[in-house]
Amino acid sequence: MAVIEAKDLTKRFGEFTAVDGISFEVAPGESFGLLGPNGAGKSTTMRMIGGTGLRTSGSLSVLGMDPERQGPEVRASLGVVPQSDNLDTELLVRDNLIVYGRYFGLPMREVKAKTETLLEFAQLVEKANAKVDDLSGGMKRRLTIARALINDPSIILLDEPTTGLDPQARHILWDRLFRLKEQGVTLVVTTHFMDEAEQLCDRLVVMDQGRIVAEGSPAALIRQYSTREVTELRFGASRNEALLAELASLAVRAEALPDRVLLYSDDGEALLEEVNRRGLHPLTSLVRRSSLEDVFLRLTGRSLIE
Amino acid sequence: MKALKPRRFGWWYVAEWRLRGMRSYRWTILLMTLGNPVLYLAAMGIGLGALVRVDVAGVSYLHFVAPALLVSTTVAEGFNEASWPVMSGFRWQKFYLGMSATPLAPVQLAMGESVAVSLRLWVQSFTFWLIGLAFGAFDGLVSILIVPIAVGAAMATHAVVMAYVATIDNDVVMTFMYRMIMMPMFLFAGTFYPLETMPVFLQWIGWISPMWHGSQLARVVAIGLPEPGWLIACHVGFLAVWTIGGLLWARRTFTKRVVV
Ligand SMILES: Nc1ncnc2c1ncn2[C@@H]1O[C@H](COP(=O)(O)OP(=O)(O)OP(=O)(O)O)[C@@H](O)[C@H]1O
Ligand SMILES: [Mg+2]
Questions:
Q1: DSSP letter string over B32-68?
Q2: Of the candidates A17, A163, A288, B19, which lies 20 to 30 Å from A198 by C-alpha distance?
Q3: What residues of chain A lie within 8 A of the CB of B104, using their CB?
Q4: Touching check for A238 and chain B: CB below 8 Å?
Q5: Which residues of A touch B102 (CB under 8 A)?
Q6: Nearest residue in A to B8, CA atom
Q7: Hey, what's the torsion of the CAs at A268, A269, A271, A272, to 10 degrees?
Q8: Residue A152: CB atoms within 10 Å
Q9: CATH class of A227-289
Q10: pLDDT score of B68 more than 80
Q11: What gap in Å lies between CA A274 and CA A49, rounded to an integer?
């Protein structure tokens, strides 16, 4: 049975529709992604799952409960990492974890033991007695993530978990999330980062303007909406457009972005040779594998990172 | 996992958090708790009292003003604790939003605030009373009843201000509240002189402020101010209605702010 089940889920703010009739299911132990540009409705969806956002229509069940009616029960099993940190900056790092554990009704002794484990998990042992204000942005993020684990949640909602982390910290976090997943924890992740989605998500939905425009595993989505490889060419702003027609005839599909042309094919190197043979000589060129970025561009006509 | 304990005791977890947070401004609290009574009693009771030679309401000026000073300073602190910290929780640091992602219900945030602040104010007003005894400003043990009266008046103020602050989005309004509500209440609500000495068209400031109702009750127990029974009932009723009404209102405003 699905741990999260949304059907025609809709959220309006006045006249504006932020989430527009989306349906999805998340299986236990699955790692599920919500991918989309700014304003797609990802955070709004997350809030409805936690019961802190009221839906306008549709149905939503989390662990078999309605988060609007049984909010406390749903949230007791939820770990929430909000998009922007909302730590208590007047408390010490350690105390932030302790008070948070108490909100779940955990006994003080248990909370204290758990806090020490989580400080290690977040690599904040040395900072345990520092004020939150004295932490770097990345450290605050790690503390927020550690905080979300204090109740041993069975579902973790991560709203852009690694925004603001350096690459090393991101990889460490991904590793930790993998381990949680191995223990059977369900992850729901929103992100702008393609590599993050590809790394973390078993399955994802691509959202745009409140709607789901595609759904599947990262590999399946790439297979379905893109080719195996992409050749990126830069001719300089003025020539990109002019050459598009000729270039398009060489590839399965072509996209002109303001600064470069993307040519989709199954053999990028061969395509690049053909371009050079025709004397088109790009200023720079790059052959890479298709990513979710390309899927998104195909689906919405826009780049994901604006 | 069930949410039985948070559903029942969530308000206390919030209070625990709030009391822990007060540690970060514990020196300010200590300074206020000790400094307020000493300064006010010295300046108003003894300094001003030396000039006011006539009895007010049948007692010395020190005896007249001290119960109301205890009430007023406690109410002022209730006001403070309901303003900036609550604003910060919703707007600046947004820690209420973090708390709302746990089993806590919005009404428990408001209740926890209320409980923690009242605990702090019990200590503060009791200390004031002890210092007042040392100053000879209060006579007899029965005057200890000023303490619960002061806390009651402060919590009535706290509840209403907290509920209102949860609806506002900018600090200009808050500065305005200090200047236009807190200050006039302090000056014109019968703390320093009987309300009746003011022109009738200003007396309403007292009637609608918890500070005046609290001060009058405090004077009844401390100096035997002869208030008719119906008026005493009015004072108590006013404070009760403000406290309960404030908390009910806070339940609405906190919920609206947290659940969108
Ligand atoms: N409380 C609110 N009142 C009015 N509009 C809102 C509110 N919250 C969100 N919106 C609007 O709903 C839309 C979706 O917002 P949401 O935060 O869910 O987007 P998102 O996908 O999380 O974007 P981002 O990647 O920027 O975080 C946006 O257009 C936003 O302006
Ligand atoms: Mg968002």
A1: HHHHHHHHHIIIIIIIIHHH--S-BTTB-HHHHHHHH
A2: A17
A3: 72, 103
A4: no
A5: 75, 100, 103-104, 151
A6: A105
A7: 120
A8: 14
A9: alpha beta
A10: yes
A11: 51
CB contact under 8 A, B97 and A86: yes
Cα dihedral sign, B19-B24-B30-B35: negative
Our CA dihedral for A121, A124, A128, A133, rounded to 10 degrees, sits at -130
Q: Look over chain A and give the mean of its residue pLDDT values, rounded to a whole number.
A: 91
β-pairing, A203-208 with A31-35? parallel
Q: Are strands A211-216 and A203-208 parallel, antiparallel or unpaired?
A: antiparallel
Q: How close is the nearest chain B Cα to the Cα of A105, in Å?
A: 5
User: pLDDT-based confidence at A126, cuts 50/70/90?
Assistant: very high
Query: pLDDT by residue (tens digit) across A5-59?
Result: 999 999 999 999 999 999 999 999 999 999 988 899 999 999 999 999 999 999 9
Q: Output the pTM of the full model.
A: 0.89
Query: Are the C-beta atoms of residues A291 and A227 closer than 8 Å to each other?
Result: no
The range of the structural domain enclosing residue B203 comes to 4-258
For strand A186-191 and strand A31-35, is the pairing parallel, antiparallel, or unpaired? parallel
For chain A, the domains span 4-217, 227-289
Residue labelled with tokens 């270039």: A247
Check CB contact under 8 Å for B10 and A54.
no
Q: Is the ipTM of this complex over 0.90?
A: no
Please tell me the residue having the least CA distance from ligand 1 atom 10: A18
Kindly state which CATH superfamily the domain A4-217 is placed in: P-loop containing nucleotide triphosphate hydrolases (3.40.50.300)
